[in-house]
Amino acid sequence: PLSTILILCVDLGTDMIPGVALVYEPAELDIMTREPRSKNAHLVPGKLIIYSYLQNGFFEAFGGMITYFVIMQDFGFRPAKLFYLIGQQGVVPPQGSVYDSESADFGNSNAECAGDQLINTTKANTSELDVLDWLFTVHKDVDLRMFFLECRDGQLISKDLYGQCKVKQISPVSGKPVCFSTEALKYAQTGTFCAIVLSQIANVLALKQRKLSIWHQGMRNGMLFVGFGQELMLCLFLSYVLPLNIALGTRDVIFLHFGLPALLMTVFLIIYDEVRRYLIRNYPKKPEEKFNWFERNCLWLSLIHISEPTRLLSISYAVFCLKKKK
Q1: Interatomic CA distance for residues 252 and 275, integer angstroms
Q2: Which residues, in sequence order, are bridge partners of residue 77?
Q3: How far from chain centre, in Å, is Cα 320?
Q4: Residue 227 in contact with residue 265, Cβ under 8 Å?
Q5: Second label for 251, Cα 20 to 30 Å away, from 92, 183, 274, 294?
Q6: Burial of 28 (0-12, 13-18, 19+ CB in 10 A)
Q7: What does the alpha-carbon distance between residue 26 and residue 36 come to, in Å, rounded to a whole number?
């Protein structure tokens, strides 16, 4: 649901400043009571990979996919019919054609039936069908209800791909309704990008503390707010500056499509992580165990707690931890 350009905007645009801002996050209050990492521990342990990709990453991706399908449905495309739609062929109607549900050819005079086979009257080989351009704007003004046709009993019928057009919006790029056009994909991709940005903000709020609650840790890191503001400003520029719309393939999504379908997943992400950290802190442990089950399996730690390079031949790290008095 994201174009290559928008993936780069996520990696190089919205991720950078919030990621760097975590360097300024104050240490957690209980940091000196934790044991140091093992000298054999990996920089990126398996628990961190599972936490990043299979937990928080899942919530972000799921929220983005929900947004994508909601927007496509609002513009007349049934979600269940979107799979493999890019590979389906049809017949491009003449320039300026208007969809007519009462017409035998639905307004596409280039399409005809030879028995149960769809033919393209504009081709020397009439059995050669057209491939729709979803990536660029070649077919931006084509009503796809005239493109995706099939023959049944020698009659043209429109493929069962469409639902109801719920959002009556005109694309500033094509000057045509967004519903039932390739422009719907541009809007869905832009909305998905905004949903991922909102999910990123929730993700940062969740992962900036590893063991304590966000209510204990607080929001004392001003650089995070700078990062959040930069993310949202980039979303606004990409969505509502027309030259950027044309250059990057983004569109002016309405407020309800500005990542809002993913809002529930962002809230759930924060709640889920709060519960996870609560169990790490409070889940009972057996007398013979040093850590409870959640602390052993769900707590991922940073490389070191407090470190500084020494003046030895090889750089080493000194890790300091408080010791209990006897």
Answers
A1: 37
A2: 162
A3: 40
A4: no
A5: 92
A6: middle
A7: 18
Question: DSSP of 94-116, one letter per residue?
Answer: PTT----TTSTTTT-TTEEEETT
Measured CA to CA, the distance from residue 133 to residue 131 in angstroms comes to 7
pLDDT the model gives residue 293: 84
All residue ranges of the chain with pLDDT < 70 are 300-326
Residue 113: the pLDDT is 92
Is the torsion defined by CA of 112, 118, 123, 129 positive or negative?
positive
Residue 181 · residue 166 · CB < 8 Å:
no
Q: Residue 19: what are its φ and ψ, rounded to 5°?
A: -65, -45
CB contact at 8 A, 70 and 259: no
Calculate the CA 8 to chain-centre distance.
12
Distance from C-alpha of 121 to C-alpha of 113, rounded to nearest angstrom: 10
Per-residue model confidence (pLDDT) at position 37: 75
Specify the pairing of strand 89-90 against strand 111-114.
unpaired
In 54-182, alpha helices (H): 57-74, 144-147
- SS3 call for 317: strand
Nearest to 148 by CA among 225, 103, 93: 93
Q: Closest Cα partner for 135 from 73, 71, 183? A: 183
Contact 18, 204 (CB under 8 A): yes
b/e map 210-227, b = 16+ CB within 10 Å: bbbeeeebeeebeebeeb
pLDDT of amino acid 301: 57
Distances (CA, A) of 317 to 22, 27, 36, 37: 21, 18, 11, 11
Q: Count CA atoms closer than 13 A to 247's CA, side-chain side.
A: 7
pLDDT of residue 38: 76
Helices (H), the chain: 4-9, 16-21, 46-49, 57-74, 144-147, 183-207, 214-217, 222-240, 242-248, 263-282, 293-298
